Amino acid sequence: MSAQELRDDRPEPPARSGSAAALGWILTIGLNVVAPIITYNQLHDHGWSEFGALLLSSAWPVLDSAIHLAWRRKLDEFAVVTLVFLVITAVVSLIGAHSARALLIKDSGVTGLFGVLCLATLLAPRPLMFYFGRKFATDGTPESTAWWNGLWQFEGFRRTMTVMTTVWGVAYLVEAAVRIALAYTLPTGTMVVISPIMIYAVLGVLALWTALYGKRSRREGERRAAETAAAAAAQPATS
User: Which long-range contacts (CB under 8 A, 24 or more apart) does 188-196 make?
Assistant: First the structure.
């Protein structure tokens, strides 16, 4: 294998369009996060069943996928994952009793199933965090998407995406198991307070770790590339 093939010298991303990136973020957050939450809360407050409210709120990610498909001529994996997550939530909400403790356990089941989804994608050609990373690291233009897709050729980048997906999957399985255990040991009133705190705390820690680990992996790749280039440059002088 040549020195060039061993290098992890990743290209810099293309210049991002500020307006396109801003519009993409507004559509993504608005249609995949804000609109489903508002729709669910409004419908549930007006007497809709939990399942019915979840089912109708899941129409927003479908709309986002349709807009993305019409705009970019490409399906948005982030919206698809959001839709799958909402479907999982709706299915879990139909299972078992509907006591306060059961609902708390069902919430844990949803995050646990997301952890399973993360780990299952390790068997796919590319893990889940590759698609999440592409959604948030690019502005959706063909140039930035091609740049991100091209990074897959580097062994260091592939390892980074695999490690990130594994950590997210394991973390959410552990989080779900801990919350289920606490639901059976703590009073329901206490768990109603603790449960959402745990959800956002785990998400915040994972997001921070992902950012730090991504930067460290990038620096490590640049260091290896510089060392390989220096060794290749010195080789003719010593032969």
Answer: 188/100, 188/101, 188/104, 191/101, 191/104, 192/100, 192/104, 195/104, 195/107, 195/108
Classify residue 96 by its DSSP letter.
Answer: S
Question: What DSSP string runs through 191-215?
Answer: HHHHHHHHHHHHHHHHHHHHHHHHH
pTM: 0.66
Cα distances (Å, whole numbers) of residue 65 to 11, 56, 206, 221 = 29, 16, 26, 34
- The pLDDT tens digits of the residues spanning 132-149 come to 888 777 766 778 888 888
Structure tokens at 191: 């768990």
> How far is 115 from 135, CA to CA, in rounded Å?
19
Task: Give the whole-angstrom CA distance, residue 179 versus residue 86.
Answer: 20
